[in-house]
């Protein structure tokens, strides 16, 4: 164990220029200490049931919170499945588990039930962990904690550096984690990602407590842990980059057909959809409405690299869209639940636009006072909904009820209600 590792658990909140402005003390600006090796070395990758059983027993017998991370192959493979799971817990050390070889980790999840899981940007990893049977009942999100505490940079590397004073090597974050065997430098990087996660958690807990925000953070963490899996996105093809250029319904149908064809191919080949056909090419074809394969091949994204058979399948998708009846064509926009876009409020309801302007100004001022991003204080969508359809009688009780009805946590209701009561009342007068 190096001196750096010896002192990591005992180091106080330390800053290298990235701490909250209201840090209550002087800022330490020494150069961060490079963290080059896991303290027990790189552990072997767990890839069979016997080794997994030993890891489960060790982590069940460990103490304190468990650091958890997962690596995906975004940009390389279809979907967001996990290709490596990293854990660290006092008394158990670090474990690297291959979820391809061990696809069911529910026994590990069960062994850690009731234990606090420490994740960084938890909402990114929880869906892929859920797929393999790992669902926390309690968690601590170090990225969210950093946001609530007012840190300007909340990536894991930035947080470890500014809070603990150690520099993580982040060069392998975007590699193809579906590669087998995984290279040793990647495994070292993966192990280091959970090396100081519990230390970071402990320091951030103290900082949040100092700022009077620890209970707020706990409410946020509980909300993440108890949230149901998100429902599948409706009409995901509408999120194709460049869709704002596509106006006509027939062209929208071409985007839809090409997107759905690409998605089927990507899923079958287990590759990222962007590697099959780029969004820009889909939009280009939709705008051009090519009459045949020759015309399609002349468009950007369908050039010499695309074989004849591929061109024919893309042109077939275009032709299917061209053959649809008017009734089968998609509508230009999706039905929007809730208020219209704010830019339209001045024309549709000037009074609502005035309420929203006052509310936004109040929320901005309060967020600055509390030293946190506005979207963590209260979601912009919640503010819009309350301003578009305010309570019939504007008072603290009715506004608090409206906020809670839109999913605001108790701490958010307590902080934001006075601001919204003032904004709504001023415009009602």
What does this structure look like?
The protein is α/β, with parallel strands linked by helices and 429 residues long. It is 49% helix and 9% strand. The strands form 2 sheets. It has a 6-stranded mixed β-sheet, sandwiched between helices. It has a two-stranded parallel ribbon with strand order 1-8. Strand 4 (82-90) and strand 5 form a beta hairpin. The termini are far apart.
Estimated radius of gyration: 26 Å
Task: Name the helicity range.
Answer: 40-55%
Low-pLDDT segments, ≥5 res? 1-17, 23-28
Helix count from the secondary structure assignment: 20
Class by alpha and beta content: alpha/beta
Report the β-strand fraction as a percent range: 5-15%
Q: How far apart are the termini?
A: 67 Å
Adjacency order of strands in the biggest sheet: 2-5-4-3-6-7
The sequence of SSEs as H and E is HEEHEEEHEHEHHEHHHHHHHHHHHHHH
| Biggest beta sheet attributes | 6 strands, mixed
Beta-strand segment tally: 8
> Which overall shape is indicated by the principal axes computed on the Cα atoms?
flat
Mean pLDDT: 92
């Amino acid at each position: 164990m190096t001196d750096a590792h010896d002192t990591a658990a005992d180091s106080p909140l330390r800053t290298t220029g990235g701490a909250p402005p209201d840090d209550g003390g002087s800022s330490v600006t020494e150069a961060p200490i490079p963290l080059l090796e896991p303290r027990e070395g790189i552990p072997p990758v767990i890839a069979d049931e016997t080794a997994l059983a030993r890891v489960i027993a060790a982590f069940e017998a460990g103490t304190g919170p468990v650091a958890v991370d997962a690596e995906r192959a975004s940009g390389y493979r279809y979907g967001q499945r996990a290709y490596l799971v990293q854990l660290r817990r006092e008394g158990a050390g670090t474990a690297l588990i291959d979820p391809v070889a061990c696809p069911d980790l529910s026994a590990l999840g069960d062994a850690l039930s009731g234990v606090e899981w420490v994740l960084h940007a938890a909402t990114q990893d929880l869906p892929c962990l859920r797929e393999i049977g790992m669902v926390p009942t309690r968690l601590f999100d170090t990225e969210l904690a950093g946001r609530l505490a007012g840190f300007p940079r909340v990536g894991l590397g930035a947080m470890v550096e500014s809070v603990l004073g150690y520099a993580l090597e982040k060069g392998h974050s975007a590699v193809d984690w579906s590669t087998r065997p995984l290279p040793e430098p990647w495994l070292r990087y993966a192990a280091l990602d959970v090396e100081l996660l519990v230390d970071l958690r402990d320091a951030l807990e103290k900082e949040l407590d100092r700022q009077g925000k620890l209970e707020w953070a706990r409410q946020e963490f509980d909300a993440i842990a108890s949230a149901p899996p998100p429902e599948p996105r409706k009409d995901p093809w509408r999120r194709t980059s460049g869709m704002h250029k596509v106006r006509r319904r027939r062209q929208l149908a071409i985007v839809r057909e090409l997107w759905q064809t690409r998605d089927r191919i990507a899923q079958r080949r287990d590759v990222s959809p962007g590697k099959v056909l780029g969004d820009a090419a889909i939009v280009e074809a939709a705008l051009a409405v090519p009459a045949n394969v020759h015309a399609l091949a002349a468009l950007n994204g369908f050039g010499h690299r695309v074989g004849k058979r591929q061109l024919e399948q893309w042109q077939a998708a275009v032709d299917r869209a061209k053959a649809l009846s008017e009734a089968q064509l998609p509508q230009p926009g999706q039905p929007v639940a809730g208020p219209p876009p704010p830019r339209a409020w001045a024309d549709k309801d000037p009074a609502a636009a005035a309420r929203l302007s006052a509310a936004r100004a109040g929320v901005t001022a309060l967020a600055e006072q509390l030293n946190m991003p506005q979207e963590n204080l209260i979601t912009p969508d919640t503010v819009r909904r309350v301003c578009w359809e305010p309570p019939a009688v504007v008072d603290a009780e009715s506004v608090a009820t409206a906020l809670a009805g839109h999913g605001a946590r108790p701490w958010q209701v307590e902080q934001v209600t006075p601001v919204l009561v003032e904004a709504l009342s001023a415009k009602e007068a």
